[in-house]
Every structure is written in structure tokens, then in C-alpha cells.
Amino acid sequence: MTVLRIKHETTYGFESGVSLNPHRLLLRPREGRELRLLSHLIRIAPANEVTWAQDVFGNAVAMVNFIAMTDKLVIESLSEVELTSSAWPVFPVAASAISYPFRYSDEEWTDLGALATPQHRDGGDAVRNWAQSFVLGSTTDTLSLLKDLNQGVTQWIRYEARDAEGTHPPDETLQLGIGTCRDMATLFVEAARFLGFGSRIVSGYLYDPDMSRVGSSGSGSTHAWAEIYVPGAGWITFDPTNRSVGGHNLIPAAVARDIRQVMPVSGSYLGSTFSKMSVEVTVSAK
């Protein structure tokens, strides 16, 4: 068991006063069988009103409505979580899904819906062919296939930090051969969908006390990874950026079908044409 403290501060500075439109925040760690949320606090300036809801994926969403104009926006999220996930997890895959290809039950297909359907049709042939190159026979071990695909991302794609917002389409990531953690996670999810797996994107935090993980700055940072649904085991965590399986060093904040649905902070403003953003994240053991 590990207890972690997470501080995530986002600051926007404007050259003159602006009117802030409603903002959507996905900053509250997502509880599950291996993560217990001990506390969470959001502090926001300028003056505002916050309402909470759950989206279609069960994520906790804070909607912020601002009362006054400002030349600075500060959003600070403070969390304390308890992690019980193992560094070497064993997954109880159902007998029907041990070998690939397998078939989800009718109920699972219905419930997975768009999560099992490729979302990037343009350039899809390149991603489909790349994904199928990891299938080495008419039948293969399901977990081995997924682990090979997970490692294959970093064999093909070199990690490179990018300050600009947005995520490259998976075929473009393959073509460029470079990408951020969100590019790599999107490629992995889309490739898994072409192989028939139910897959979803996860955003949250990477805990890296040894500062040895790719995509980390200091002992912690924001991060993106993926989850694959396998009967019996449920949702299995894959971090293609670091070739890892399992979530012992990952703190999820939101899951969704598409990376654009899990942005930690999203919103707009009216006024100044110039803004400067800074993000500071620390993850530390208690």
C-alpha cells in the first residue's frame, strides 16, 4: 500500500482583463478497486461557482462558472490517494479469452459499443496493418499479444515532449515515428480496437520517485495511458510510453473513448488575444 499526495496547479496569465467562459475540470482522482481517494480539494481564482457531476464514463466533472473579469486564472487541485496495486499483477483472464482471437459475449459487445470501434477511419489501413503484424499465428496468447503491442509502440515511436495542445492521429504518429504519451496511448488504443478489443484512454498522473520513467518531470507529472477490457480480468492497464502493464505507479483521473474527452482543464475566454499557461505537478509519498 502506498499513500500519495498530488498537487496539480494550472495558471493562465492574460495581457489584459478577460471574461472567462465556463471551464470543465477532470482533476479528481478516479476511485477503483486499487485506488482509494482519501481527500480532494480544488482552489480556483478569480471568484467562481463550482458544480459537480458525473459524465457518461463515471468521471467526476467539476464545472466552473466565473463571476468577475480577470487577467489571471489559477486552478489548484490537491489530492491524497491510497494505492494498493501490485508492481507484478496477475490477471485472472477467463478461459474463453485466454487465446486470441476470442469473442466477447453479446452483452459485452453491446456495452463496449464505441470503445471497441476504431475512431480514426482516415489512415486506418496503416494502423490496422501495423496492429495485425503483431498477430503471429492463427491463435496466440491474448495477454502476450497485448504486451507485444504495448512494447511495439515504443519500438516504433520515439518519445518527444510537445508543448502544443492536441494529439496526432494514430496514422500520423506511425508516419512521424515520434510522439508524446497522449500520441502513444491513442495509437495503442486504436490499434487494439482494430484487433477487436474494447479499449479506452486514461488521463491522470505518473508517480516516478526514481525519475526513471519516460514522460516524467521530477517525481510526478500528468500522463496518458490506456486500458483494455479482457473478460475475467476486466480493464487491464497498459502504459505504452513506458512499456509497462498494471497501474502501481499510475493515478487515473478520467477515462473515455477519445483523448479529447479527458483533458484535465478545458474552457475558453473572451478578450485578450494573448495568454501564457504554466502547469506544475508534484506527486510525493506521504
TrEMBL record:
Limits of the Transglutaminase-like domain: 173-242
Matching InterPro entries: Bac_transglu_N, Papain-like_cys_pep_sf, Transglutaminase-like
Domain of life per record: Bacteria
Protein name: Transglutaminase-like putative cysteine protease
